[in-house]
């Protein structure tokens, strides 16, 4: 499902214009992003938990040349699925 498809489904389910549904979906994703950028954790009951983790610098290998390269430290978004969602997917 894409963001557009989610907006369209929301518009038909709640009988609102597609443009309004798109604004609502965008708002939710923007707020999730803002919280993660601020270093906060986002927990949605029954769905899962989004968090930010630090990934340490490490040495890697360039696959085309085989030479060793340094990979810089970075922050990554992580998602841990809730048990309720995990169980729902497993039953399908």
UniProtKB/TrEMBL annotation:
Which SMART domains would you find in this protein's record?
A: BHL
Q: Which InterPro entries match?
A: Hist_DNA-bd (IPR000119), IHF-like_DNA-bd_dom_sf (IPR010992)
Write out the similarity annotation: Belongs to the bacterial histone-like protein family.
PANTHER family per the UniProt record, alphabetical: DNA-BINDING PROTEIN HU, DNA-BINDING PROTEIN HU-BETA
Keywords associated with the record? DNA condensation, DNA-binding
A GO BP annotation: chromosome condensation
Protein name as it appears in the record: DNA-binding protein HU-beta
Instruction: Report the Pfam families cross-referenced here.
Output: Bac_DNA_binding (PF00216)
Annotated GO MF terms:
DNA binding; structural constituent of chromatin
- Gene for this protein? hupB
- Signal peptide interval: none
Lineage, top-rank taxon, reads Bacteria
